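Hi R.,

As promised, here are both runs. First protein below:
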Amino acid sequence: MSYKSHSLRQLALQKFKKNVWGVFSLFFILFVGFISIFAYALAPDNSMHANQMHLSIHSKKPGFKVQMLTMPNQNINKQSFLSKVFYGEKNTITEIAISDFKVDKDNLFYTEYASDGIIVVSKSIPLQAFPEGNYKSFINEKSFVFGTDKYGRDLLSRVLVGARVSFFIGFVAVFISLLIGIFMGSLAGYFGGKVDAVIMWIINVTWSIPTLLLVIAITLALGKGFWQVFIAVGLTMWVEVARVVRGQIISVKEMQYVTAARALGFNDFRIISKHILPNIMAPVIVISAANFAAAILIESGLSFLGIGAQPPMASWGAMIKDHYNYIILGKPYLAIIPGLCIMSLVMSFMLIGNALRDALDVKT
């Protein structure tokens, strides 16, 4: 008869695997994480921040196609492969949307794309400007799967690159909240007395301030920017972690294994870090999943208000801000697509949080 281990970790893993929505959410989050890391390698527009503008083809519907003339540029500085993958092309080439072109003697004549029946004068460029006069490789049909935004940028590329902000803000904010929350909650719950009273006063004061207002204040103090928003969101989410950790430590600090650790002469730091915290991490993990979702929503709200990630950086919240008025102009997809991305990612974190709560519940 073979021996089968029934440790709590394996039982929790088995219960989690049975939760279809939890497993699906986990794979979706991993998929978004992969896209966030390799966004520039996957995006049709791999320029930095996917910021290649074509004002003549602004606000085009999904599936729009146009011929694109790539202007030869001999002054592009070399950039490393890893830099291109993780930061995009810093020295982008110039692209021109054209509706027609022809070759006459030693010149290439092209007509820039223009909508609404606008007449555009043809322009020319010498064939000598192209390497070996091969102009055909510089004219290609470009397809915009999600269409273009109001600046003529590829919406799909902006969505892929914008996933970085929404995804990584969850990790940074949750890391900061765990770092501060576990420390403060451990001190309050383990030592009690005046230490608990002071820390709980700080927690209550922080909790009484509206989250969005506090984030705005911190953001204005630190300045507008990418990392400032990450820090600001993280500094507003630690109170929930601290309250949970405090309550859990109060309930377990008088248990026999903690008393035995004290009797063996272990110091308070070792008792907290080695004996208490590993046994109370289940509810902390669950609340961290909820904080991921909350961090994404807060960042989206800040970007919508204009104090989050700053242009030209791509952000789902900023994309909604730029295009929400297009909902009544017959082009709602410009705001709906990033909105659906936010909703899907937030829902995935909430579902995986519910799945972890059920899996880590030892009573069931």
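And here is the second one, sequence first, then its structure tokens:
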Amino acid sequence: MTASRAVPQPHELPEARRAPQRLELTFRVRGTDCAAWLYPGRGPGPAPCVILAHGFDGVREQALDRYAERFQREGLAAFVFDYRHFGASGGEPRQLMSNRRQVEDWRAAVAYARGLDSVDAQRIALWGTSNSGGHVLKVAAADPEIRAVVTQAPLISGPAQLRSMPIARSARLLGAGLRDQVGALLGLKPVLIKSAGRPYTRAVTTTPDALSGLDRITPLDSTWRNAVCARFALTTTFYSATRAGKRVRCPLLVCVADGDNVIPPGPALKLSERGTLRRYPSTHFALYYGRTFAAAARDQAEFLRTHLLPATLRVVGS
């Protein structure tokens, strides 16, 4: 049971959020529909586009609309999507978190966005956060046409993530993952565990601010569920975007929360040697709301303007 939703503060709701221009779209990945929002650019002709998706089991209404609207105010288009198995997208079983599938979804989203008449296919940027902060590195490393990448509080190294966790907790997650995977092979129902819980409970994330942070960014009518198929632990343990990060050739912005107690910031700080670093005195979840969100969105908008918009078309955001 989570706490009551926090009431958004004035600095969390910029004026442009009152009436965003947004279209509901779908695209297909291996026969399954993925739900997406398109925030069209506000200038004449096709607009440069930022593609966004959440981390781990997150869904698009968990503050990604805030980032998309901020970028739209700069004259950029934004394309925000839900992964298969989550949110408004299709896919069975529900709540199946797979890094491989999510990277496939990213590549399909890029291809779909490039085919939209309102999008400039030559000016595409990727925006990832948490788990998807590693995904965007993999996609950009294999796609030389990507113009810029923003990676925020990224999960780059699964082994580093595992080492940061207490051994007993890691063992419990791996054990649940093994039961879930064996059950899947036998045609049994998924073994679900909570994505977030109180400290010392059986959940993936148990930091003191996990539940309160999610409450701040999850609308009451959200499609998000506090559950994930446990088998994710068997593959995420070995997930790594370190090599991909070294192969990214486009401009790269790395945003790090110095107080991140969900994902160790060390690998991200190392990655930032290849790009631009912005650091915030905040926790992981604070990047999605309040003053930390405002600061991160401002820095990211400036970075994206610089690399996607001609100087004559840049708009100074409020």
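A quick note on the second one: The CA atoms of residues 18 and 274 lie 38 Å apart. Let me know what you think.

Best,
J.
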